[in-house]
Queue: 2 jobs
Job 1
Amino acid sequence: MAEALAFYTLSVLILGLAVAVITTPNTVHSVVFLVLNFLCVAVLYVFLQAEFLAVIQVLVYAGGIVVLYLFVVMLVNLGRSPEEHQDPRRLGLIGLGLSGAVLLELAGIIAYSYTREQSPPVTAAQASPVQGNIEELGWLLYTDYLIPFEVASVLLLVAMVGAIVLARRES
Amino acid sequence: MDFIWLIPLLPGVGAAINGLLGIRYFSKVLAARIACATMGAALLLSLVAFLELLGLEHREHVVTLAHWIPPIPLETASGIGAFEVPWAFRLDPLSGMMILIVTGIGFLIHLYSTAYMDHEPRGGYVRFFCYLNLFCFFMLTLVLGSTFLVMFVGWEGVGLCSYLLIGFWYHKQSASDAGKKAFIVNRIGDFGFVLGVFLVFYTFGTVDFREVAEAASHMPVEVAGFGVVSAICLLLFVGAVGKSAQIPLYVWLPDAMEGPTPVSALIHAATMVTAGVYMVGRNAVLFEHAPMVMTVVATVGALTALMAATIGLVQTDIKKVLAYSTVSQLGYMFLATGVGAFAAGAFHLMTHAFFKALLFLGSGSVIHAMDEEQDMKKMGGLKYYMGTTFITMFIGAIAIAGVPPFSGFFSKDEILYRTFLSNKWLWGLAVVTAGMTAFYMFRLIFMTFFGDYRGPGWKHEEHGGHAEEHGHTWHGPHESPRLMTVPLMVLAVGAFAAGFVGVPAALGGGNAIEHFLEPSFVATSASHAGEAEHAVAHLSHGAELALMAFSVLVGLAGISLAYHLYVRRRGQADRLAANWSVAHRVLLNKYYVDEAYGATAIDGTMASARGLWTVDRRVVDGAVNGAGWLTRALSWVSHVLDKYVVDGLVNLVGWICQEGSYLFRRVQTGLIQNYAVATLFGVFAFITMYLVARYVGV
Amino acid sequence: MPAGFSALDFYYILPELLLTGGAMVVLLLAVLTPRNDNLLLGVSLGTLVASVLSVSLFSGLDVTAARGLLAVDSFAAFFKFIVLLSAGLTMLMSAPYLRVEGLKAGEYYFLILCATLGMMFMASGVDLITLFIGLETMAVSFYILAGFLKPNPRSNEAAVKYFLLGAFSLGVLLYGMSLVYGATGTTSLQGIAVALSGQSPSMVIVLAVVLIGAGMGFKIAAVPFHMWAPDVYEGAPTPVTAFLSVGSKAASFAMLLRIFVEALPAVAADWSALFWVLAVLTMTLGNIAALTQSNLKRMLAYSSIAHAGYLLIGVVVGTERGVASMLVYLGVYLFMQLGAFAIVVAMRRSDVVGDELKDLGGLFRRSPAAAFMMLLFMLSLGGIPPTAGFMGKVWLFGAAVDAGFVWLAVIAVANSAVSLYYYLRVVVFMWMHEDAQPGSPLVFGPAMTVALGIAILGTVVFGIYPQLLFEQAQAAAGTLEGFSATVALR
């Protein structure tokens, strides 16, 4: 019960902060909301007993990426808020309405399915030969999921090369 | 005989050489030689193949080159069939006749074009021959194809070539519009054809003509109901209607005359437009099992024949007259097939190929002589300038008018006779059409070649060589070069003599062509079992001769009416058209009185003669007046139909597509947010779809 | 549980390893000899050839490798051939383009190789995680490739649009996948199929079908998830557009088939209905929108959308024959689409952009060879016999009729008829219009000649003798798991 309460409180916080990120006119405030958002997600990982992920979330996202964002925001001082050059043809309201409708449908279906339908119990993940969070993760990454793990490194390399290609000044 | 696959291939090779190398590097002469040589070789091969065919007992030879579509198991009405299509060519009497027509007339037109297209710059000249060869390649594939699909390759190919050639002078807006129109209209026909082929496969489990005919011959004739065979035939007929320019899809053919004249002769008169007739003949067994569709075919044919003929009566553009005449004659062929006289239809197809190609080439020669003038009002008296063209065209006109013993007489009469046996009403329409045909053809001849020269004047060149520097100077009407007149003469011989292969029994002939073609129209298994029984009714030779005489008389009446209006009393037609004023009428009547008065004063013989003459005049004028009015009314109706109904439909389809397309352009704003909204909408719509389907129940 | 990988696992991923290694070599060479474009092209092509050869080592095999994450079967091999071939053709046509545009060849070839790598994982992955990471590798490479023309604002716009919308649709896709994982507790396709079998599918799975369908629909540019395609296709460098419309689409179809046919046969009726609607919308709107385009690349973009609609017919049918005919169509589509784009690339010269329809005016007189090839590609795209496009259509529509989707086939035939209009409009421009501004003459370098030669060969040979392609496609479709259930039902 307490766990459920904590989960829903956190979820509301995460969603609220996410909305705040995209609605705040001040860019710096927006980034700060983003940090808070990431921290809440980290807390959620702790509840799911994924401590390693929680730490990584704080280190990489809240620590690294957002700090980078802040630097960019400080260095590139936008003279005007992005809302000023909004195109009149934008279908903002329709988009909002559709989002709401899809959200309602999703919530309805999931709530209905899990209360009314007889869903079979989901089999728990296989017992792991090792104990401990980090060890288990490492074990999985280097055995079962070695291939995706390695491909992810290629993916990062592509992103890096891409960033350089796009940012490099032509001679 | 296994070489028949070379027949289509040779022109194809010619087209490839001219297309890939010629446009860059070849001179006019070289390109023309390559094109003519390949066609000539194809003609020789066709002749050899045809002679060998005559020696075959079964009158059929199939050459399978390769497997094209590997067997695909497909569900059919009778279990799982293998959709397997080989690249196969079939030579039988019908296709044998067709390849002779295509290569023979094609070769002559190639020769003719070498001179006719001479004004064209080198690039265009080579391009023209490339297209012409390519057309022959596809047309020969069409007629030799042993299955629906190989035929479809040719069917689409000739459509493409026709489209390219109509718009050959692409800088002329009307030419490229005409090309577009031909293309769109033909799509409608092709859609029906493709669906028909699908249904054929679904029903019979094969697309081979012979196998389909075999299978169909074992099915009951759908006398009472509209069954699957009727559906197939109707769909195939839609295809034929598009290709062969019948009501309501005929509108593209008159416009197609924007292309160069040899193209009109080859594609839009002698060969491609007859592909629909050929296709119906190919599937004779199928059509015979669908009597309702046969009635539709016959009716559409007869109505088209009549309608096009009425329009032809008042045209003044020489090529337009011939174009409507072609539509009308194609209607005759469909009428023949529709009453079950497939051989007569094919026979008329052949004779028509000769005299219509001749008339078109002749008109090309005239247009050439008149410096690209096509209006007959500005011609006249040309027989003094271009004798060969005049004589050959005159022969063509006699042939199409159905005067014995010219070729058109035999084929047209066979159609009329068979129609008479089948349906008197349609026969009536056909006879009226025959009269009109004779009239407008001779109207064309008289307006063009007789009377006084009405065209523009020309400067008499005093042998100065420097005129060449100023480009093309016209020296007045002149006979065309040998390369153009020789094909005319050859075709004239054909137009005269081609009918002798089908002299009917009533005239002491054996109707050789009908017996020759018969194997193509019956299923093999049925042919030995006394198929003659389906020729149900027969008239006595005497009655047949009477019918013949009647139709000849109608034709002669048409000719004499034309003579009356355009030679004997020139200008009367104009007066008719100008809707006589009252004053004029009174003046004319007074003249009558004077004549009658004078008649009393002169001796009896003269009096009776003059009296007769007056009567003649009144009756004939009245009839002419009435006929003129009727014609105008009919052609007005046709025009309205043409302009508002058919064109309207074509435009509507185009409009819907265009407007729809613009609507999408408006949605495509370029804003990422809106694109995301579209995605979101898709997700929403699909989830809702499932929710509704599952919980509300549809 | 046994730990680690066996040597056999590394043997089975040899094609991917070779490709990765080659990509690294290209990246290094780009630093060492930055101006030696021919060397870079040679090494990249060599990598592809080596990869193709190693794929053919496993022909006839049907096993899973790497702990059940990858399948080595004919289906994967077929798609690997397709993506490798399209990558090869793309590189060949890129060589002159890079020179004209003054682009850096090293990074370009590297990114193409990496995109190909991602596609190969999409073809062989039998686990949601492998599939996803493959998709992501491909997508990121394309985001950058789309913006490779840095001075060109249209190209920048294309990259940003593709990236933002791609991220959005990826979110949708991931949400669907996570729902499947939540409902079944496994990411293995086989495991999902087992977990879902024998129970009436819950609405959550249907929801997941919609979300995954939307995510994949974005990648294959199915209406209404297609909005990015015209803008991106128009703005991206032309060879990249070609690769995007063939390679990316083929790989996404492979992934789509893997997920839906192998993992979700339990809800086959549901996704078949979804794809029916998608197919009809996609081919109809794609064709109608293409009618009025004046930009050649944009027209080909809409044509490619319409072709995705035809391809979806194979998914709707969902039987072994349906999939086989879809693979045939993909194989055919590869040649004709890349061929058409190669001509557009050839039209780009130092002084002419050449991607407007009117730039083709009178092409026949200036370069008859190019015009004839374009004619052939257009006829094939329009499905006129005896080109390969006709073969593909006959088989695909035949499969639809066979499985009882008669209306779908009729709509598809009507659509083909409509599409002929704009394909032949291209022909009209080449033959019947006034000459466009001449610019410098069209020259086909050796690389371009090879690319066009292969494209023409495929378009003609598979039109006249399609047996080879059919056999391969049938073998490939046969190894896709999950038909047993659907076939038994029929």
Job 2
Amino acid sequence: MGSDTLPLLFNLDQENISCQDTTILKNVTLEINQGEKVGLIGPSGAGKTTLLRTLYQRVSGQSSFVHQHYALVPQLSVFHNVYVGRLDRNTTSQNLINLVYPREQVRQEIFPVLDSLGIKEKSFVRVGELSGGEMQRVAVARAIYRQESILLADEPVSSIDPHQAGAVLELINQVAETVVMSLHAVELALKYAERIIGLHNGEIQFDLSAEEVTPVILKELYQQS
Amino acid sequence: MLKTSLIFVGIAFVAVVLADLEVSTQHPWLEMGRMLEGIFTPELPVIWEFKASLLNTAVFALCGTFLGVILGIGLAFFFQYLPVRLFCAFIRAIHEIFWAFIFLPVVGLNSICGVLAIAIPYAGIFAKVYAEIIQESDQQPLEGIPKDTHRLSRFFYGVLPVIYADTKHYTAYRFECALRSSAILGFIGLPTLGYHLETFFKEGMYSEAAALLIVFYLLIASLKYWLKPRLIPVYVVLAFALLSREISLSWENVARFFTYEILPWPMRRQGVRDGTYRVSFVLIPVLEWVKGIWLDEAWEGIWKTVVLTQIVLVGTGLFSLFVFPFACRHFAGKVANRIWHYLLIIVRTTPEYILAYIFLTLWGPSMLPAVWAILLHNGAILAFLSSNNADLVQLRIDAPLKRIDRYFYEILPRIYGQFLAFLFYRWEVMMRESAILGILGIYTLGFYIHSAISDDQIDKVMLLILFTAMLNMGIDSISQVVRRRLKISTKLSIAS
């Protein structure tokens, strides 16, 4: 049951989610409404990626996704990788022509996004030649260019310098209405997400607003074996 | 791996004992001297005189490869179906020369014959390789593409960029092979390089032969300079335009060929005798006919082909293991490396048919020329590859100083897996080559096929080619099983 005005976007009720015969998420009950900014935290292997992918499958056509391993095409340029964000919205001939010669209109749409992430100078450099941090920015740019109201992100700033990570997360929060992102830097989660969900061993340990999360709770989450 | 290697060595030993290897010419060394003299005094004007055949060689290769690529892509799309895979395996099991034999009676000795003889087996090869490249390519980029994207867009943005380098690389390599195939098609009468080379060798005109060969080497060596992707469409259009139009193709003849002339004689016998040319479906006489050919010709042809193949399989392996250190930086100095490098390139660029013809001229007909031709050609390929792999190995600073020790303890163990995988991969190529060298007088399958073509017995030609294809597919299967069992692959994995 969502609140009166905001629609319920995700609703999981005591679900077990498995991948290739291994149950990764156990007994998950979760509701996310439109407009929430949710941060997923927890030790590696807790199931954050699986949870994000599960949520993505329920809204795939109407959401943007930032992959943990970027899922970029190394042989294509930054520009074309970002263009892929809207590949399903254009006609095939538009896509093919763009591959050979990008139209001015498309350039005007994509360049500002690249600029906001500080990679505009590398617009036509092959992604394979970039550093990890730059590649991650391209992955974020692609999700932002897609401009959906729901944005799901799996460790979107893991390779980005902590000083600049904040700006990227700020941008994500501005562009998308509903954000669900997993972060391993807890301070960033507390600062840029309003609601924190702590995952441990495939189970939701806690589901609190950012203010309610105390160092004790965090210690318990990360120090269990 | 060692046990398997020794088993094959054992088989080869037996094969050598059973094979007919001898030098039957009177003055082989004298002849060789004349050949060397020819190499150093090439008759260059010949190049201009026979420019038409040089052009035809390139044009056949280009058109054949282009058609092969198009058909191959088409077939690759359906590669998930077993019948398609089997069909591709079948068409590539037949050597280009045998395909030429199939088309010769139908279209004659013209450009269509040459182009199709290359295009059809290559289509099968490209289908398999392209399908494999796509299958083994990185799937990750595809995950980043929106779900509802149209299939074509998904391919151009998520698959093509990823496979482009490998595909381009392999297609260029295949084009080089096509140039070789095109050249040797001349030996059976098509208007390419091999046609004049045969005359020159027969007449002992080695200076002229050398001139043509030099141009051929230069053509292949210079490929990387003029075979640029952007220019390919231009070349293709030009090639098709230059294809000789002197073809009088009667579709009636083609239809009659494929529906009547290739049928076994027993099925046509009655119709010919009573003048109606009816086809009768007589199972027993056909089976008798098959049995007859099997006992008279096919069995010996297969046996001799297998004997030859096994000898060259092991011979190639031993040859390259012996030779590759000379081109490898860990064993020889820079100058020696360079020299051996170029020697290997020259030998691997020379079509095995031409090598066989040279040795045939020197030693007379027996299995010896064929053994050395296939062995040197494939040995050079393998030695070149192995020396490149060996060059990649980084030796630890306390590696043994003696080169023998380095070879057996540091280098060989690291590259042996890939070396063996590639050797087994070439096994079916060697079998195909063994089969066609029968044309030069040894009793492998090619001999009998060539006789049948000369006698205009199309039905026998088809049956023998069918046997050849089945043998080839059999060896290819065994080769894959062996490689899987030994867990070796041709992909590079050097752990240094």
